[in-house]
Amino acid sequence: METSTLTPEEQFQARIDADVRIEPKDWMPDAYRKTLIRQISQHAHSEIVGMLPEGNWITRAPSLKRKSILLAKVQDEAGHGLYLYSAAETLGASRDQMLADLHSGKAKYSSIFNYPTLSWADMGCVGWLVDGAAILNQVPLCRTSYGPYARAMVRVCKEESFHQRQGFEVMQTLCEGSAAQKEMAQESLNRWWWPTLMMFGPKDADSPNTEQSMKWRIKRFTNDELRQKFVDMMVPQAEFLGLTVPDEKVQWNEERQAYDFGEVNWDEFWAVVKGNGLCNHDRLQARVQAHEEGAWVREAALAHAAKRAARAAVAA
Amino acid sequence: MNQQEWPLWEVFIRSKQGLDHKHVGSLHAADAVMAVQNARDVYTRRLEGVSIWVVESKHIHASNPDEAAEFFDPAADKVYRHPTFYDVPDSIKHM
């Protein structure tokens, strides 16, 4: 066969180029495996930590309907984390190690969750803007080159659309309400707009991993391409709501058929990534505390399973 | 940390009566009962299933992808197993 003269790396790249999905037991370069474990586990951590800012509002949701919706959404985030941890485990990563890396601060999660949720309108912005940005990132990942990651993302994307719509509905309800409610919506948008733009990551010029990830078809669009898409999608939605995006430079560019917009504050972005955001400390502490306080449950479940197995063995 | 990780299980779901169970993913659980309950919570929150199978991952035996070419080779040159191999005259109906 012709391919036998190619190195394993070349054969691997040829499969990627032909859009053949890579499955867990297939040969893959170590760097591909490492990149995926880092990206998928970071994605899983983001889902799990992402439960915290919303969990904050479950007991204070303004109606039983909103409370039920928020509970279902937070439960979905836990599910998304589990799909993703499972995908990472197919690459040989252990669940315990991934959690240990999150808790020690070695592993990252999306910086957006290091911002506080101060008002009920923030539940609207988290769904509408943050999940809206997440969807733009995640839809192309449904075609990512690693099979288990792509399959997990298909499930995630199906569920994410509900998240965004319920967030938009929260915003719409506030915007059609009293002056004070509309003001609350605007104030929330003012705080969330820029951090949401940061979710797409550093500028392409400052994103050294992008080129390799595109070549391996882990990523299908660059950070700047997705950020532009997001702005183009969201500015008209904000206008529909009667809200103003907090960026004076936002303007339709007829020539580019896209919105121009201002520069993200990259100093703030890097500060939050490095652990100096408003909530970095609280988020990690809440995670570690939940994990430690759940230790006895995990141990008891194992002891119970062992006891049941022993009884079944005696009965047999 | 001397705590033991819960075993890993593979989850298969029948989406409706008449269809086969299909692999949907995996999860950790202390035993089979918990694995079925967790599978319900993780993989069927929107009525995606009417039946769940769980199998501890260590019990799955698989073909080796590195030998896939040789392993599946016997079927590669038997085009006569496919109906399209045969030329049927245009005037012949119902075949």
From TrEMBL, chain A:
Keywords: Oxidoreductase. Its EC number is 1.14.13.149. It comes from the Bacteria. InterPro entries: Aromatic_CoA_ox/epox, Ferritin-like, Ferritin-like_SF, PaaA, PaaA_PaaC. Pfam families: PaaA_PaaC. It is an enzyme of class 1 (oxidoreductase). GO terms for cellular component: cytosol. This is 1,2-phenylacetyl-CoA epoxidase subunit A.
Automatic annotation (TrEMBL), chain B:
Keywords: Oxidoreductase. Signal peptide: none annotated. It is an enzyme of class 1 (oxidoreductase). It holds the Pfam family PaaB. It comes from Hymenobacter ginkgonis. This is 1,2-phenylacetyl-CoA epoxidase subunit B. GO terms for molecular function: phenylacetyl-CoA 1,2-epoxidase activity. It comes from the Bacteria. Its EC number is 1.14.13.149.
